[in-house]
Amino acid sequence: MRNSAQAAAYVFGAKPIVDSIDALQKLAGTGTQRGFTTTTPTYASINSSTVGVQTAAFSDLGCPADGESQNKAIAQLKAELKVRYGVYIYSGDLTDEEKRAKFSGQKLTACEELNAIYSLKKELAKYPPTYIRYTKLDEIRLIKKLKQDGNDWGGKACSSRSEACPIENSFFVELDDNGEPWGFHHELNHLAIKREQKFPIGDAEWVNLNGPEGAELYEYQWPLPAFNLFDRRTWKYFDINSRPQGFAERYGTVDADEDQATVAWWLMNKYQDIMNIAQSDSILYAKISLMKKRMKERSGNLMGEDYWNDLANGKVDENYWINRGH
């Protein structure tokens, strides 16, 4: 747990990016189907070299003791991410439409929200803004104990509006037991796949990497009835140690969509681990190579091998892309 005793001094020890929180919020906008404009703000509004630097004081320190400081810190982080990536972070109550779609969950406390958004900021910083814009992501919705129709979900990506997905260009991310938005990279990859129209049945380039069995692997690797996706006691199947050959984790055997999302998650969260395992798994290595190729294309050729080497060596921090002029 971060040390909240140190925190009261840190929030406004950092000089705001612009003269006031209110001014920053006006630049950034505030909320999707609640009157929020989804166009990406112009970077001329704020000196991009300072974005991500001035809020470095929002480090792993904890939460300010008083609610007003927490709320102001949350507002500044949300506004900064909206300006840099065009993404609004929402952690309020479920909308009526979401309730009708049978979503349920627990709202975050202010302290949980502050820590989760700061963690999310660090994960977003692994991508250049061009990558995030490519996915057309407008909104990330943070929640605890996410369910839909009574079933547990770690996240839910919605690229288009439907009865089951009331808010398009968005995704839910559930916080894990440590308060981290653990499914962020997984859900972001789902949006990217949908933008490319590479749905599970139609993505032959990916499916063919499985070899002669192709899509059949997605049918026969699923360990029914022992595995219940919605029973947290069996989530050991998300662990890399229980994976079948050719997959990053057993959950990737659901379909090609989940296969890709699990590979992307391991690349962005535990790069060296997945690369080490792939040295003795040629199918997984081929999938990683294709995922890297696609991520490079999505980023406008910015996420090439130099990037992956830097990620492996711990050089990709909050200012990595800013320092490179992106």
Short description:
With about 325 residues, the chain is α/β, with parallel strands linked by helices. The protein has helices at about 5-10, 20-30, 65-85, 95-100, 110-125, 130-135, 185-195, 205, 215-220, 255-270, 270-280, 280-300, 305-310, 320-325; strands spanning about 90, 105, 140-150, 150, 155-160, 170-175.
Notes on the protein architecture:
By secondary structure, the protein is an alpha/beta fold. It folds into 2 domains: 4-195, no CATH class; 204-323, no CATH class. It has 14 helices and 6 strands. The protein has helices at residues 7-10, 21-28, 67-85, 96-100, 110-124, 129-135, 184-195, 204-207, 216-220, 256-269, 271-278, 282-298, 305-312, 320-323; strands spanning 88-90, 103-106, 139-148, 151-152, 155-158, 170-174. Strands 1, 2, 3, 4, 5 and 6 form a 6-stranded mixed β-sheet that branches. The radius of gyration is 20 Å and the shape is globular.
SSE map:
Elements: H1 7-10, H2 21-28, H3 67-85, E1 88-90, H4 96-100, E2 103-106, H5 110-124, H6 129-135, E3 139-148, E4 151-152, E5 155-158, E6 170-174, H7 184-195, H8 204-207, H9 216-220, H10 256-269, H11 271-278, H12 282-298, H13 305-312, H14 320-323
Parallel strand pairs: 1-3, 3-6
Antiparallel strand pairs: 2-3, 3-4, 5-6
Helix content: 25-40%
Question: What share of residues are in beta strands?
Answer: 5-15%
Q: What does the average pLDDT come to?
A: 77
Distance between the termini: 32 Å
Give a short account of the largest sheet: 6 strands, mixed
The count of domains is 2
Number of helices: 14
How many E strands? 6
Low-confidence sequence ranges:
1-61, 222-236
SS-derived structural category: alpha/beta
Radius of gyration, rounded? 20 Å
